[in-house]
UniProtKB/TrEMBL annotation:
Pfam families: dTDP_sugar_isom. The lineage of its organism: Bacteria, Bacillati, Chloroflexota, Chloroflexia, Chloroflexales. Belongs to the dTDP-4-dehydrorhamnose 3,5-epimerase family. Homodimer. It is an enzyme of class 5 (isomerase). This is dTDP-4-dehydrorhamnose 3,5-epimerase. Keywords: Isomerase. Transmembrane segments: none annotated. The active site is at H62 (proton acceptor), Y132 (proton donor). Its EC number is 5.1.3.13.
C-alpha cells in the first residue's frame, strides 16, 4: 500500500500496490503494522457497507463525539463516489478546511479519515456501494454532524442532491 498525505493534516489517500499476473492481481487493502508504521490508527472494530440506489445520493456530514470519535477507512467497491472530509479539530492547522476525493471501484483508492473530521459522500453512479472500516463502534448518543451545504465550508458537490435522509437535512449550521 502507498500512503499519500492530503492537504489536510493527518488525512491520507491509500493506494493499492497490486501484484499482477495472468490471473489478474492481488493486493493488500489493510495491514495493521503498515498503518502503525505511518502513525495512523490501526484499530478496526467494525466494518460497514452502504448501498445507494441512485446517483446524487448524499450521506453526511457525520462524526462521533469523543470518547467515541471514529477513524475511518473508506473505499468504494461498486460504482463511484465523491468523498468529502472536513477537519473539525480546533487545534489543527487545517481547521475548517475540506477536501473531496473521487473514489471508484475502478481506481480502488481509499480515504483515511482521522478522528475529529466530519465525513460524507455523494454517489456519482447508480447502484454504488461503499465499504468502511472504523475504529469505534457506532454510538448513537455520540453522533454529530454538520450540514452538507453549510456556508462555513462551501463544499462544492458535483451533482444536484437526489436523495438524502431527513436527519442529514437537519444538521445544524457550524458555529465553531
Amino acid at each position: 500500500m502507498r500512503f499519500i498525505p492530503t492537504e489536510l493534516k493527518d488525512a491520507h489517500i491509500i493506494e493499492l500496490e497490486p501484484r499482477e499476473d495472468n490471473r489478474g492481481f492481488f493486493a493488500r487493502v489493510w495491514a495493521k503494522d503498515e498503518f502503525a508504521e505511518h502513525g495512523l490508527v490501526d484499530r478496526v472494530v467494525q466494518m460497514n457497507l452502504s448501498y445507494n440506489r441512485v446517483a446524487g445520493t448524499l450521506r453526511g456530514m457525520h462524526f462521533q463525539h469523543a470518547p467515541y470519535a471514529e477513524t475511518k477507512l473508506v473505499r468504494c467497491i461498486r460504482g463511484a463516489i465523491y468523498d468529502v472530509i472536513i477537519d473539525l479539530r480546533p487545534d489543527s492547522p487545517t481547521y475548517k478546511r475540506w477536501i473531496g476525493v473521487k473514489l471508484t471501484a475502478a481506481n480502488r483508492l481509499a480515504l483515511y479519515v482521522p478522528e475529529g473530521f466530519a465525513h460524507g459522500f455523494q454517489t456519482l453512479e447508480d447502484d454504488t456501494e461503499v465499504f468502511y472500516q472504523v475504529s469505534q463502534y457506532y454510538t448513537p448518543s455520540a453522533e454529530g454532524g454538520v450540514r452538507y451545504d453549510d456556508p462555513a465550508f462551501g463544499i462544492e458537490w458535483p451533482l444536484p442532491v437526489t436523495e438524502m435522509s431527513e436527519k442529514d437535512k437537519r444538521w445544524p449550521l457550524f458555529t465553531g
